[in-house]
TrEMBL record:
The keyword Magnesium is annotated on this UniProt entry: no
Protein name, entry field: Cell shape-determining protein MreC
Phylogenetic placement of the source organism: Bacteria, Pseudomonadati, Pseudomonadota, Betaproteobacteria, Burkholderiales
Cellular component aspect of the GO annotation: plasma membrane
Biased composition (Basic and acidic residues): 302-315
Organism: Paraburkholderia solisilvae
Length: 383
């Protein structure tokens, strides 16, 4: 009896032959699809047919993610709503207090006859792009001279000072941020009223409060606002907060590190302030007493030298005139010489006026002597 396997267990081709066949078929499909795009239609039909199955398989995941997002969104909205209500209440209270303070300030200023502060006009602007220089902290806003943007105007956002306008174009303007190494802002500490100047740093991530003595009362957490003494920034704008104070014995000033209150790099919408300072200009510096005395001495010395030179010039002119007169008397005839001698003797015999200068007298006498010498000759001629 011949043994044969049941029909269910008939193997057909060998496993190696089937492996080689399917490998060759896979390579042929890959090459044809890569070279000739033959399976694009088949792939599209399979994708369209399997899409409902895919969406049905993803329904549990979408439901779970939607429930989680709903819970998180609800919690976030409740938290934000609570914070905004508290902030609204605080701002309402501050608005009431500011209105009362403004009325009181106006009354006191009218009582003391002080000039009212000018209102600050603001122009909204939006940052367009950063500048090309990576070593500076500057941005370009979409407002320019056509929108009344002026050079030097302060730039702020809802939190505080962001920077200052440094270049103005017709439709754009360049703003130097507060953290730039070349930017300086006069500030004062709210708690103590100490005034100083805050500068940016080369890294652009912090601020440096300079010219603060070691003995000054500066603590971490103090808030800095603009002092308004420079006439550029309005007083009272929030600028920075102190984070660290380093006092060393070998230096006269303390190193105070601050961080800006406003998000300098995160701000997108800004306000450009048009601040007009009505303070009169600074008077001219008066000279010191020592410098005034030196100037007076110099002027006196110059006047004395000038008068001496004038006297010398006059004396020289008179001597020259006297010499010319003597020479003319020597060359003149005998009669003329006698007459000149007689007039000279008569002039010398007359009393000299009191207001006549000694130099003139000394000049007149030598003029008479040369003319008197030919007198004997003239008399001998007459005899």
């Amino acid at each position: 009896m011949e043994y044969s396997p049941p029909p269910l267990f008939k193997q057909g081709p060998s496993a190696l032959a089937r492996l080689i066949f399917f490998v060759v078929l896979a390579l042929a499909l890959l090459i044809s699809d890569a070279r000739f795009r033959t399976l694009e239609i088949v792939r599209g039909v399979l994708g369209a047919g399997l899409y409902p199955l895919q969406r049905a398989a993803l329904v549990p995941r979408d439901m779970f993610m939607g429930a989680a997002d709903l819970a998180v969104t609800s919690a976030t909205l409740r938290t934000d709503n609570t914070q905004l209500r508290a902030r609204n209440l605080r701002l309402s209270q501050q608005a009431n207090e500011s209105a009362q303070l403004a009325a009181e300030n106006a009354h006191l200023r009218s009582l003391l006859q002080l000039s009212q502060r000018s209102t600050i006009q603001s122009i909204p602007a939006e940052i367009q792009y950063d500048t090309r220089d990576p070593f500076t902290q500057k941005v370009v806003i979409g407002r320019g001279s056509q929108q009344d943007i002026q050079d030097g105007s302060p730039v702020v956002n809802e939190n505080g000072v962001v920077g200052q306008v440094t270049r103005v174009f017709p439709m754009q303007a360049e703003v130097t941020l507060l953290t730039d190494k070349d930017q300086a802002v006069p500030v004062q500490i709210v708690r103590t009223g100490l005034r100083s100047v805050i500068y940016g740093t080369p890294k652009g991530d912090s601020l440096d409060l300079r010219f603060v003595p070691i003995s000054a009362d500066v603590l971490a957490g103090d808030e800095l606002v603009t002092s308004g003494l420079d006439g550029v920034y309005p007083p009272g704008l929030p600028v920075a907060k102190v984070v660290r104070v380093d006092k060393q014995a070998d230096t006269a000033f303390a190193r105070v590190v601050c961080i800006p209150i406003a998000q300098v790099r995160g701000a997108r919408q800004l306000l450009v302030l048009h601040y007009q300072n009505e303070v009169p200009p600074r008077p001219a510096d008066e000279p010191d007493a020592a410098s005034a005395a030196k100037e007076a001495k110099k002027k006196g010395a110059k006047a004395a030298d000038k008068s001496t030179s004038d006297k010398d010039a006059k004396t020289g002119e008179q001597n020259a005139a006297a010499g010319a007169t003597g020479a003319a008397g020597a060359k003149a005839p005998a009669g003329t010489a006698a007459n000149a001698a007689t007039s000279a003797n008569t002039a010398s015999a007359r009393p000299a006026p009191s207001d006549r200068k000694p130099a003139a007298e000394s000049t007149t006498k030598p003029a008479a002597r040369p003319s008197a010498k030919p007198q004997p000759t003239a008399q001998g001629t007459r005899q």
